Amino acid sequence: MTLPVLYSLRNCPYAMRARLAIYASGQQVHLRDLVLSDKPAEMLLASPKGTVPVLITAENSVIDESLAVMLWAFTQSDPQDYLDASQPNALAEMLELISLFDNEFKGHLEKYRCSKRYHEPSLVADRGQCERYLGELESRLCKHQYLMSDNPSLADLALVPFIRQFGRVERQWYLQSAYPRLRQWLNAYLQSRMFSKVMTQYPMWLTSKEDIVFGNRVKLTAN
């Protein structure tokens, strides 16, 4: 059987969430890890914009947006019901939350990271802009175990890599911040078998030319 091909970058949050969805959905792909300073010609031919993730399906369709890769994975199979298929408005609500973080929070997060890196005086203010969104997640997690309900969802997997990034900017501040439910939620993912598998370091594809089979075909259990 021909497997899809996924061009990925291990620490890119967009590629990370694509891998999370592929793993959680029980799909398998040929994983091609790369560095953005040396992009494979095959990837650029498929997606000239040159960003990851890029998924080439078994039917040779190209999907080069991380959220679209996630949705592709869960429409192939969704053994843990990450799309909450029984609820008619669930997916729309998930996508609304994801959009808020993709289109607003991510910009503030980048400013915050730059402020820390370059010792800018705007550090506290930039962190405060991010906190407006973290408060929303903390409120949700006070009501249920995951962001949308007591079950994990597409939204959880989509946001985990970016909250992980936030928590690494000022580690000590984060550990003492007023977001205990958010820390608990993130730690549960970071310590899970799924995250360990998703973050495994493989040889660079351009060096080895070895297609790593990534994913999980066995019946999944909750992490």
Notable traits:
223 residues; alpha+beta; Glutathione S-transferase Yfyf (Class Pi), Chain A, domain 2; five-stranded mixed sheet; globular; disordered C terminus
What general form does the structure show? Answer: globular
Return the CATH class of the largest domain.
Mainly Alpha
Number of helices: 10
Q: From the coordinates shown, what is the CATH architecture of the largest domain? A: Up-down Bundle
Radius of gyration of CA atoms, rounded to a whole number: 18 Å
Major sheet, described briefly? Answer: 5 strands, mixed
Tally of individual domains: 2
Unreliable runs, pLDDT <50, ≥5 residues?
Answer: 218-223
Elements, N to C (H/E) = EHEHEEHHHHHHHHE
Percent range for β-strand residues: 5-15%
Class from helix and strand fractions: alpha+beta
Enumerate the strands of the largest sheet in spatial order, edge to edge or round the barrel.
Answer: 4-3-1-2-5
The termini sit apart by: 29 Å
| CATH T-level fold name of the largest domain | Glutathione S-transferase Yfyf (Class Pi), Chain A, domain 2
Mean pLDDT: 95
List the helices and strands and how they pair.
Blueprint: E1 5-8, H1 13-24, E2 28-33, H2 41-46, E3 54-56, E4 62-63, H3 66-76, H4 90-117, H5 123-143, H6 154-169, H7 171-175, H8 180-190, H9 193-198, H10 205-208, E5 212-215
Parallel strand pairs: 1-2
Antiparallel strand pairs: 1-3, 2-5, 3-4
Helix pairs in contact: 1-3, 1-6, 4-5, 4-6, 5-8
